[in-house]
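Weekly puzzle thread! Below is a chain. First person to post its structure in token form gets bragging rights.
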Amino acid sequence: MDRSTRTILGAIDLLRPGNCLIIGFAALVGYTIGGGSDPLKASLLFLGAAMLGAWGNIINDFFDLEVDKVNKPWRPLARGIITPRQGLTLGLLLASLGIASSISVSLVCGALAVASFLLLFIYSWRAKSSGLPGNILVSLLSALNIIYGGVASPKPQLSILPSIYAFTIILGRELAKSLEDIKGDAEAGIKTIAVQHGPRTAIQASGAVLLALVAISPLPALFLGYSTRYLALALLGVDLPILYSLRLLWRNPVANAWRATRILKIPLFMGLLAFLLG
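Winning reply:
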């Protein structure tokens, strides 16, 4: 494989395309649940959210370069496939595209895009190393994706419930993710809950958040008029993967952290789908 091909593939990997698709989908969920139906507006919202998600992934790897050399040496910056300057340039270009796309939808969406751009920088630069406050910030940013889509719709208030769901699942996953990165985080002085209080406390905190989500997942169907289709998707696509991932973490928090946090991407997507179809 020649150098140009490796660079292109490394740049694609740096974006984390799967994450970008979920972020764009979250914006579409907020827009559609709120009654939005304009295909052009939906496309622009998807593009804006996905490009800002790519910026968040890139700037995270930019500031995590030394930590990733320990935790994730296969990442493009850690391997040297992409230089930090190339990565930063790519991130800024994609963020500019995302902000421009958002402004073309509305000034409110543009303002939220600019706020997300700045908060993602602050998170990667400083807040991530603070531990729990950083976990809360990145969870709020994830919930903001749905609000961002919702404010472009006729009924933005309908995006509030799925945004609360997104906040909760991301917070639980972030707490579990501290187990995955515990070695490099400890060496870098990052104050995650796993580093400060140990793996068992981290799994207990993550479990408390995620089990609370499992407990309340049927409530929209029972009290808010959501359909049995929502309930089926919530039970099979959200609750079961969460319970399975927690079982993995409880058996061996550190060794199973990578697998468990990947499984926890399933309920994020399936939960949004449940709100969209239910």
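Puzzle host: Confirmed. Bonus trivia for everyone else. The longest helix spans residues 39-63.
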